[in-house]
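Need HD domain-containing protein's 3D structure for a figure. Predict it.
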Amino acid sequence: MSELTEWAYPLAKSLLAEPLPRRWNHCLGVAERARTIALILGEDAELLEAAAVLHDIGYAPDLAKTGFHPLDGARYLRDVAKGDERVVHLVAHHSCAWMEAEARGLREELEREFPRESAHLNDALCFCDMNTTPDGTPTNPVDRVNEIAGRYGPESLIGTFIRRAEPEILASTARVLERVAAAKRQPT
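Structure prediction for HD domain-containing protein:
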């Protein structure tokens, strides 16, 4: 483990394991997916793994201020935990967060406070999140989107957002899988 992941795992666990054990399991699964695509991330592999294990900390009861978990989690990481700036930005923008922020009237606030990381890292975190069930096991993005829409209801803000985000989620997944396939074809 790197210094970054050695910091990220205990922090995420302290915020999620007791109050939200299922969410904690999901974050562990997302981090596991991040390790499976490390070959396309180079020196950013540990950065992505740290963001993956932390991406949902904004759901922690003590952190939930706006009710929009990417923003709440990123603010905590920036202001309280003094986290790595790139991890903070990935958490703020994970899994098409800008679309949900827009639906909540928070997009300008999100984008003003937190610049986006590179597209390939945002794709990678979206891939990891949307290929992991709420219990932390592997899935595929179509089933994951259906699960989210079903859990929140199709007419809810989250249900509407996730359906709107579905084409981008699928495109992100396709881009990551293309990069993994290309990396595997490269001679070692």
